[in-house]
Amino acid sequence: MSTIHRPTGPVDESGPGTGRPGLSDFEERLLAELKLTVAERAAPDGSRPGIREQATASRGGSRRRVPAGPGFSRARRLGLAGAVSAVAAAGVVVALAAAPGAPAGRSAAPGAPASRPAASFVPAATVADVLHNAAVAALRLPARTPRPNQFVYTKVEEKNAILSSNGSSLAVTREWASVSGAAFGFWQLTPLDAATRADPYVGARASRTAACVNGRLKVPSKGSSGSTNGQRCSPSLVSGYFPQLPTHDPAALARYLLKGYQSSPDDEAGNLLNVVWQLMSRDYLTPPQLAALYNMLARTPTLTMVPQVRNIEGTAGVGIRSSLDKGLYTTVIFNPRTFAPVGMILHAPVKESGMPQNGGETLLKLAFVSKAGQLP
Amino acid sequence: LTSRIVAGGKTPRAPADCLARIGDDPEAFEAFYREHVTPVTRFVARRVADPHMVADLTAEVFLAAIDSAHTYRPDRAPQVAWLYGIARNVIAGESRRAARELRAAGRSVGRRILDDDDIARLEERIDAEGPGRAACLALARLPEDERSVLELVAIDGLAVKDAAAALGIRPGAARVRLHRARRNARQDLVSRATATSAPALLESKI
Fold this sequence. Notes:
The structure holds 2 protein chains of 2 kinds. Chain A has helices spanning 25-42, 51-60, 127-139, 194-198, 250-261, 268-282, 287-298, and strands at 94-96, 151-159, 170-178, 185-191, 205-209, 211-213, 216-219, 227-232, 304-310, 316-325, 328-334, 341-347, 358-369. In chain A, helix 5 (250-261) crosses helix 7 and helix 6 (268-282) runs antiparallel to helix 7 (287-298). Chain A is of the alpha+beta class. By secondary structure, chain B is mainly alpha-helical.
C-alpha cells in the first residue's frame, strides 16, 4: 500500500466504549451498518434491510422506515415552516391527540381543502375504504397551529427497528423538532431492555440536531452555541411542521413526496406508505394534511389490506400493507373502529440475515412543547 | 488502526482477494473497513468541514466500494488509491447533488444521527485536517485535471502512479499534469501573499 502521509499531528483513534481499540463509536456503528448491507447483498433473495436505503435517504430523503437509530440517517424533513400564528400560551405544553376522538375541531389549518368529503365511515372492505375512514377520522381531530418557537415532541417505541449487534432491540426514541426550524432540536434514544442498553451499537444516545438560521445550516457543537457551516438551507431542513404540503391534489401530493423521498424506483406505493408513516410519527400534520395523505394512499395501486394485524404492543387493527422490497413488507395499522393509526410493523422474513425478523414502531405521544428536551 | 498509519511509513495492504469479497462477505468487509476507514475519513475531512457531511460521505464511499469491488485491479493500484478515486467521485457527486437539491426543492434530507461525542471526534479530525483542507482550497485556481493529481500526491500522499490509477489516467499523463500543476501552483502561491498554513504546507510538498 502506498504511503499515507499525515498532514498533521496524530489524532487519538481510540473510541470510548467500543471495546475495540482503534475505531470511534461512530466508526464502529458505521461498520455494523455496512456489514448488514454486505450481508443483505449476500442473502439469497437480497431482501434484508440495510444501510443502502439509509444512505439514499440521507442523500435525497427517506421513503421507507428502515431500521433507524444511532448512526442511521433519519430522513424525515420536508415542508417549510412558514408564518404561523400563536394559539397556545407561552410556556404551556399543548398535548395533541395522537389518536382521533375529539369531535369537530374544524380549522383553517394549513392544508385544509376547499371542501371536505362527507365525514362518515364506510364498511372497511378494501384499502380505499380503510383509508377513507382514516381520512374521515383525521378530519375529526382538533386542529392546532403551533407557535414558531415551539417544538414538536414525538415519542415512538421501536422494536427491532434500530440497529443492534444481536438483531433484537427495544427502545423509545424521543424527538423535539423545531416548529420554525430556527432552533436546535433534540433526539434521544432510550433502550427499554437490558440487552439493548448494553448493546455497543445502540446504548442510550442523545444528540442535538441542526437548525437553519438566516438561510444557513447551524450545526450543534459540543460546549458551544453551535457553528454555522455555511451550507444553504431552508427551515424545512429541520422543522417538524409543514404547512405548505400540497394537499389539494392527491396526484400532486404524491409527486411532491416522491420527488424527494423515493428510494425504491420500482416501489412507488411502498415509498409513499413509508413516507406517510414517517411524517405522521415524527412530525405534526394538521388534520387536513393527514386526510390528504390518506386520500393519496387510497389512490395508490398495489397496496393491500390486511384484515387483522397486531402492532408491536399486541394491539390488533386493520392494516394497509406494502411490499417494499422482495420479501420485506411494511404495514401501517389502524384501529378498526376509530381508524386512528396505532402503529407500523416491518416484516423481514429472511432468517439468515441476522437482522430483526419482525419489528415496528408505535407512536406513543405527539405534543407541542416550549423547549427542546421538555416533556409534555 | 493508528499504529498502521505512520507518517511517511507504509500501511500493510489487505489481500486483494479480501477486497474482491467485500461485497458479499461481511468479515472480509470488516477487515477492509478497519484498515481504510481512517484514511478515508481524513480524505473526506480534508475536503468537507461539516461533521455530519463527513459521516455521510464516508459511509457513501464504503457503499460505493462495496458496489464496485469487482472492478478493483490489484495490479494497477493499491487499495487506498482505488478508494481515494471513489471518494473523489462521491464528494464531487455530493457537491452537484447538494446544489441541485437546494435549488430545486429547498427541502431536505436527513443526516446520519450523530451524538455530541461523535460530532466532537469528527470535529477533531476535521480540525486536524484543516491545513490539508486549506491546501485543497489553495489549489482551487488550478485546472481540474492538474489540481486532482496534485491533491492526491501532495495532500493525500499517493505515489504518482497510484494517483493516476485513482483518477483512471495513465501514469505518464499524471506525471505531465503533476509537473504543470506544481509549476502553476508555485506561481500562484508566490503571487499571493497569505499568512495561512496552507501555502506553507503546499510549498513543502510541491
